[in-house]
From TrEMBL:
It holds the Pfam family Methyltransf_3. It comes from the Eukaryota. This is Caffeoyl-CoA O-methyltransferase. GO terms for molecular function: O-methyltransferase activity; S-adenosylmethionine-dependent methyltransferase activity. One of its GO terms (biological process) is methylation. Transmembrane segments: none annotated.
Length: 217
């Protein structure tokens, strides 16, 4: 966030990036939407949070070509599972190729559908309160809905991490009032006032808020 190119390069040089993550990042760099990918430093933080939690069951909402999901899958134990929700089949083809290459395909359960529908099916299938960790990085106007569904799916003490909460600085500019900016701004305000979770807004990448679920929902 706000790093000069020189500082970003320095930060990158100090991330321990798995070689397959690096290959995926390099392939994605030539693709449309590559700026959507989380930074290596963000992926490293997500993986560490999952490890600190001892996470076994994780969810990602918004996979794109798989960089953040692969980082989390690599951090999970062999018995771990990551439900990866994405609507775009072509992106998923790239992601699956790299899960395979990194030897983690058996840990990733890909859901090719609208993410809210996939989350609702998990709840309907009796999986409420059974996930340790969730990462949200899909449609910005749907953040509130994803969050409410994930609050049902994640156990007390589990984490929901939300990406792009600083939205390239636009959330702080009162002159910017497009729909996505307003959604993220409103969502950040909701989190600030939501006593079902503890929160920490971290200025890494485009800003991530870490929410820890405090009460049974
Ligand atoms: C910001 S990118 C995700 C980047 C990814 N976390 C990474 O680090 O590479 C957002 C992704 O969410 C997907 N997406 C957007 N709306 C969606 C929805 N309603 N359901 C499922 N996926 C959605 C898009 O297709 C896109 O691939």
């Amino acid at each position: 966030m706000g790093a000069t190119p020189q500082l970003y390069e320095y930060l990158l040089a100090n991330v321990r990036e798995h070689p397959v993550l690096r290959e995926l990042r390099e392939e994605t760099a030539a693709m449309r939407g590559s700026q959507m990918q989380v930074s290596p430093a963000q992926a490293q933080l997500l993986a560490m949070l999952a490890q600190i939690l001892g996470a076994q069951r994780c969810i990602e909402v918004g996979v794109y070509t798989g960089y953040s999901s692969l980082a989390v899958a690599l951090a999970l134990p062999e018995s771990g599972r990551l439900v990866a929700c994405e609507r775009d089949e072509r992106c998923l083809e790239v992601a699956k190729k790299y899960y395979q290459r990194a030897g983690v395909s058996h840990k990733v359960d890909v859901k090719h559908a609208l993410a809210a529908d996939s989350l609702k099916s998990l709840i309907d299938g009796g999986e409420a309160n059974s996930y340790d960790f969730a990462f949200v990085d899909a449609d910005k106007r749907m953040y509130e809905e994803y969050y409410e569904l994930l609050l049902k799916l994640v156990r007390v003490g589990g984490l929901i991490v939300i990406d792009n909460v600083l939205w390239y600085g636009r959330v702080a500019d009162p002159l910017v009032n497009d729909l996505k900016t307003i959604s993220i701004r409103n969502f950040n305000k909701k989190l600030l006032e939501d006593n079902r979770v503890n929160i920490s807004m971290v200025p890494i990448g485009d800003g991530m808020t870490i929410c820890r679920k405090l009460v049974d929902t």
